[in-house]
Amino acid sequence: MNLGYMRVSKFDQNLDRQKQQLQEYGCELIFFEKLTGTKLDRPELNKLLDYLRPEDTVVVTDLTRLSRSTKDLIEITDLISQKGAHLKSLKEAWLDTTTAHGKMLFTIFAGIAQFERDLTSERTKEGILAARARGKHPGRPKTDDEKIKYALYLIDQGMSRTDAADKAGISRMTLYRKIKDEMTH
């Protein structure tokens, strides 16, 4: 069965063009949502993935409807593949995992993306080690304990957490984390 997935980023955008293309291709069921592709939790995409059966084909008008990053695309395609289903993009003809050629091309692109992630990770680790060798300590600087104590004192005096954080010169989240840490210890 051909299952369509269509998405637009904003609520006021129109899905008509995508719907027409998916219907013309022969999609019997179409899942749609109006929400950014950068969100990992997309309810309709999750329903589609749950609904998938072996030999079904997920059809999208173009890859940007399914994912905004290579990493997410690979993960979504892997989930589709684990179900024994396929993926087809109408715009990117090379992405059609129903064919041996399409599977091979996708595997190559997935390998390149993984290689890129691994190189980035290696460079980051090397950079951290080099900085430490020079006596630097990469990362977020530790918040001054005196500022935190001052903020906690202000809260004890009746000031709101937000105002106490502002007055002490620390972020609200730093203050909230410190309060949470003290409650759990």
Short description:
The chain is α/β, with parallel strands linked by helices and 185 residues long. Helix content is 56%, strand content 11%.
Describe the protein's architecture and organization:
The chain has about 180 residues and is α/β, with parallel strands linked by helices. Helix content is about 55%, strand content about 10%. Helix 1 links the parallel strand 1 and strand 2. Helix 6 packs antiparallel against helix 7 and helix 7 crosses helix 8. The radius of gyration is 24 Å and the shape is elongated. The mean pLDDT is about 85.
Note the topology:
Layout: E1 2-8, H1 16-25, E2 29-34, H2 43-51, E3 57-60, H3 63-66, H4 70-82, E4 86-89, H5 100-133, H6 145-156, H7 161-168, H8 172-184
Parallel strand pairs: 1-2, 1-3, 3-4
Helix pairs in contact: 6-7, 7-8
Principal-axes geometry comes out as elongated
**Number of helices, counting only DSSP H or I runs of 4 residues or more:** 8
H and E order = EHEHEHHEHHHH
User: Largest beta sheet, briefly?
Assistant: 4 strands, parallel
**Classification by helices and strands:** alpha/beta
The rounded distance between the terminal residues' Cα atoms is: 55 Å
Whole-number tally of structural domains: 2
Question: What radius of gyration results from the CA coordinates?
Answer: 24 Å
What is the number of strand segments?
4
CATH architecture heading of the largest domain: 3-Layer(aba) Sandwich
- Poorly predicted runs are none
State mean pLDDT (0 to 100 scale). Answer: 87
Helix content: 55-70%
Which percent band covers the strand fraction?
A: 5-15%
CATH domain topology of the largest domain:
Rossmann fold
| CATH superfamily annotation of the largest domain | Resolvase, N-terminal catalytic domain
The order of strands across the largest sheet is 2-1-3-4
The CATH class name of the largest domain reads: Alpha Beta
